[in-house]
Amino acid sequence: MAVFLENSKPSEGGGHAYYQTIVGAIDRHSFPTDIELLYLNVYSNELAELQLRKRVIDVKKTFTGAIAFYTLNLAYRVFHRLLKSDFKSLLETISKGIDAINNQAALRYIKKENIHLVYYLKPQENVINYPMIITHWDVGHKSMYPFPEVAWDGNYKKREAYYQKILTRAFLILCESNAGAKELQYYYPVNLQKVKVLPIFGGDILKCQVSKEEQIKILDEYRLVRDNFYIYPAQFWSHKNHSTLIHAFHLLLKDKRNKAIRLVLCGSDQGNLTFIKNLIDTLGLNDNILLPGFVSNQHLYALYKNAIALVMPTFLGPTNIPLIEAAHLECAILCSDFDGHREILESNALYFDPSSASTINRCLAEMLNPEVREQLATAAFRHINKSSFQVERSLPLLDRFLQEIKPIREAWGMNFKILFAFAKIGMLSIN
Fold first, then answer.
1. CA dihedral 128, 99, 419, 14 (to 10 degrees)
2. Residues 168-198: pLDDT tens digits?
3. What is the full DSSP assignment across 85-116?
4. Angle, to 10 degrees, between the axis of helix 297-306 and the axis of helix 212-221?
5. Burial of 180 (0-12, 13-18, 19+ CB in 10 A)
6. Mean pLDDT of 271-281
7. Among the residues of 83-208, which ranges form H helices?
8. What is residue 62's predicted lDDT score, i.e. its pLDDT?
9. 332 within 8 A of 309, measured Cβ to Cβ
């Protein structure tokens, strides 16, 4: 079994958190004796940071492959800087060429090591032509409104091509929740025996240890006071729905007793930040809304631990990682009313219609009662620690799924090995 390593950046948000957590958990996990694990290093320069204990193979390209790779990589960098979105199709063509060279090099090592299955830890369109297990997160281009990032500029076509091409070729489709499995089956005709649930989990932020003194220093940096701000960690995509939350927060501030309360919107820009800044300025909320950009795990930990509540009005589900992290860190949770959110938290959160500012406002106001807030946070903490949404409880399920698929794959092979592959593209959202 092998894991593809990649250059993953913290600013990528939930995808990076998922990657770091699952790679680390796989490295620590003891798989059944008939499943061998190794790592294939095609992309990553971060091996020292990952501190992997299991075997690592550095994938080398052929001489001609290396020349072609560096030529295309240089062309991509030049064209991306000079042409950018005006020649998006050209950039995509070059990118596919780069992926093809990497895949060809990886495929040589896969066959050399007698690996029989490829397991992709993250949804992506660049797959090796080889028997595979895939991870499924969402069908956002069908399940929610046509936001630009899923429906415009070829994004819908790209997503649809992924599902039409990949789903039918997969040995197993691993969904992050029962709600996700049902959603997938609603929109696409798939063999139900291939669909399994491998529960989603929180990121490495849950391993952080930040003292109360250090938390106070972090709050001071942002000029924040404990229990006097709400937190929403999300990249600035339009589907993250910062705008409705801002309108709801504006309603809350109309009560003069709440004039000192703040809202922290942390995350990197994905094209919608300028609109959000203009909205904040128009509503006169610059003194009450903080936009710190991407924040480290240590800072986000301090924000979770000291916030009034996490507020997550996203339009994209069925699940989202911050709900799990907030629950573990005893932060009260307000979120969109999705089946997946209820599957994670049950009755231990306040749910709202993400398109209704007035409904979100009522939830924000309810959290200003300390007793209600603490009761909700404590209940969520107790619940999440008993739930299946923890990586340590997902991996034993993975063992079972691999054993179930073994006789099927052995129908045309001898030894049984699994390739864990993490893709560089990461075309779907999780956060």
1. -120
2. 889 999 999 999 999 999 999 999 999 999 9
3. GGGHHHHHHHHHHHHHHHHHHHHHHHHHTT--
4. 100
5. buried
6. 97
7. 88-112, 140-143, 148-151, 155-166, 178-187
8. 83
9. yes
pTM, rounded to two decimals: 0.89
First to last CA, the chain: 28
Rounded CA separation 90/95 (Å): 9
* Amino acid type, 377: A
Name residue, tokens 């799924």. 401
**What's the whole-number mean pLDDT along residues 332-354?**
98
**Tokens read off for 94:** 């070059």
- 384 CB-near residues (< 8 Å, 6+ apart): 324, 327, 328, 344, 345, 348, 390
- CA–CA dist 149, 191 (Å, integer): 29
* Mean pLDDT computed over 315-322: 95
| Rounded average pLDDT over 157-161 | 86
Q: What is the mean pLDDT of residues 337-358?
A: 98
Could you tell me the CA-to-CA distances from 2 to 12, 36, 124, 396 in Å, in that order? 24, 8, 18, 18
Q: Is there a contact between 121 and 420 (Cβ–Cβ < 8 Å)?
A: yes
Tens digit of each residue's pLDDT (9 = 90 or more) over 211-227: 999 999 999 999 999 99
d(CA 165, CA 168): 6
| CA 319 – CA 185 distance, rounded (Å) | 16
